[in-house]
Amino acid sequence: MYLEFLKQQMSKLITLDDVFNEYSETILNISNRNCLAKENLKDLKAYFAKNQQRYKKLCQQLVDVPVPNRFTNLHDNILQALEKYQQTLQACTNAIDATTNSVCTTVVEKQAVRRLRAKTLLASAVWGVHELRACV
Fold first, then answer.
1. Which of 3, 30, 48, 77 has a Cα at 20 to 30 A from 124?
2. With 50 as the cut, is the pLDDT of residue 114 above it?
3. What is the DSSP string of 15-63?
């Protein structure tokens, strides 16, 4: 039951990750003035924040789920990776100044790299699920 729940949550995370990657690309495009006329940082920051709340909800569900003893270390590793990922999302949100319609592109680019590292940690932890499944 736990493994099935974890699989569902990881699927949702992959979808959200695609969304955040698109936001990062759009942020950089807006900064470079390579965007549609209707795209702006104020709206993008609001969309980003809305999906960040979805991400936090997903993480909270993972925190709240009962974890069988044999999966405790795996679960802890997943939560650590998700926390690192969350830090990158917050940094990107903070890099956007919707009032002045400006963005610190260096921060956005750097956080994209950090998000990738967090995803690598997460993938490593999730790989443990596949290995455990083979043993069950």
1. 48
2. yes
3. HHHHHHHHHHHHHHHHHTT-S-TT--HHHHHHHHHHHHHHHHHHHHHHH
| 41: nearest Cα among 22, 28, 54 | 28
The residue to which tokens 């679960």 are assigned = 75
C-alpha span between 127 and 11 (Å, rounded): 14
| Token pair 């969350």: residue | 86
Beta bridge partners of 96: 103
Helix (H) or strand (E) holding 6: helix 2-31
Q: What is the largest CA-CA distance in the chain?
A: 55
| Counts for the chain of helices (H) and strands (E), in that order | 4, 2
What is the CATH architecture of 2-135?
Answer: Up-down Bundle (1.20)
The confidence score (pLDDT) of residue 125 equals: 67
| pLDDT tens digits for range 23-77 | 888 888 887 777 766 778 888 888 989 999 999 999 999 999 999 999 998 899 8
